[in-house]
Amino acid sequence: MSLDWIYYAISWILLRWHALWDFIGVPDGRFLGTNWSWVLAIVFLVVTVRVILFPVFVKQIKSQRAMQALQPKVKELQEKHKGDRETLQKEMMELYRTEKANPLMGCLPMFLQIPVFLGLFHVLRRLNPDNAGKTLYGWTVEQFESATHASLFTAPLAGKFGSTAQELTALQANGTTVKIIAGILVLVMMATTYLTSRQMILKTGWAEDPQQKMIQRLMLYGIPLSLLISGSLFPIGVIIYWVTNNLFTLAQQQWVLRKFPPPQMAGKSGSSPARPSGPPAKKPAAGGAAPKGPVQPGRAGGLFGRKQPEPQTPVVDTKKAVAPKPGAKPVNPKKGARPASKPKG
Question: How far apart, in whole angstroms, are the C-alpha atoms of residue 46 and residue 109?
Fold first, then answer.
């Protein structure tokens, strides 16, 4: 299957952002050893992709909330089918299907960004002055030459930690500078990747489902550690993309989790002011509509308190004590001796 359509799409977005920064007046030359127009083009490539994937991110959050809400039922199934793993898997799949929850939805945004990452990796890897196909994927010769010599603090965007001496010579780069810049970026990439996973797990909690918990551990520890090795193969421009994407994810998750806190978080944070039954009970008592009645009349009195005081007052025991004389003798002594002593006098 050809991935040319991805390479064309990534190139088009990258070149449009570079043209925009050039139009605004961001210098195409180096400032502090950096070609900011190309660096900003990569940064806003991330913004473009994340805006497109925002609906998927919302679905990811909803799926995670649904999975979290199902944890008590999952725990019951695990206790019920301890020794029968096959039955447990069937029951859990049926539960997910019934409740419309997808355990893999939590990883969907990351999976959808893999083609973008691979496309950018391929496009930046081609930035070599000796490359004959400079106009491939919609590039012009001028754009290709400009991107080839673009750098971050004098380290070429196409350079990587594991660049060979031949590649560094073609890029006219200093090997030590490239290793330092690339090494720092790889460490930042690992740290931000770890923080994005840790942020979500701390807010939503560890899953009870063993498969979900294994996925959480893989995302928390496995992926950052794998970047220590694979990061040496990534061009500096790709690492800039990854770090920017992680920072965007941290900010987005923080906003979503504050705006729409998960159930556990809402229960813990709102338990003291919101959940106690005291405030709802005090409101009808303070209004004075139905202090002697139960909770239901109190709630109705809040809506119709001005129209229903007359039917509520006859319900009080005063009429019961006066009207039924035969029944007044056994009832009245419990509430007081005054109504019983009047007929005797």
Answer: 13
